[in-house]
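Protocol step 4 of 5: obtain the predicted structure for the target chain.
Materials: sequence only (see below). No template structures provided, no constraints applied. The aim of this step is simply to have a reference model before the mutagenesis design in step 5. Sequence pasted as it appears in the construct record:
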Amino acid sequence: MNGLELGVQALGKRVDAALADALTALRERDLGLADRVVRADLEINRLRYALEEQASAKLAETSDPLEVRTLVATLYVLSDLERIGDHAEGIAKVTLMLGPHPALSIPSVMVTMSQQVQAMVTRTLAALHRRDVDEARRLCGEDDEIDALYDRAYGELLSAMTGNRDIVSHATYLLWVTHNLERIADRTTNICERVVYLVTGRVEELNVSKY
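Step 4 output (structure tokens):
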């Protein structure tokens, strides 16, 4: 395994941890942890761009078709990983805006959604490491479940706002969290498509929602 692959793995671990910490901070109202997630995003960005420079330099030097394929896929994966980090940072920022005593509890559907999205990220990173095409395809097929949970959460939060004006701002913040979670799921399916490309050499659009 070369240094670039190790770097991508390291970035993936940072992003996975950032999401886990952001969701823990939201659930436990841990503002200190949320602040650490926000500040740690700078290192995720720095690592992404450093790895991107390495991949771009290698791409300029090689004519080997397999290496070109690997480097092109890596560039796309780096971008999606960094964006997942941004969404984790967004969730942490919402936690800070909600403060220690939010006016609204997190709906159970959001808890379920967050657990499934976290699992998708972890499994996607494993599929990338193992070049597991079958798992990558399975993960893409699970995106519809996240979309369904998103719609349920959206509906519940809108209904809560309609019934109680005092919680409108906090319910709106939670809507932002659901949006970040839905986008993270989309980013994981993008990475899974790159896993398929890495192994087969074919560009396939697997993230086609049936929902």
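Step 4 remarks: The two ends are 39 Å apart (CA to CA). The chain has one domain: 3-200.
Proceed to step 5.
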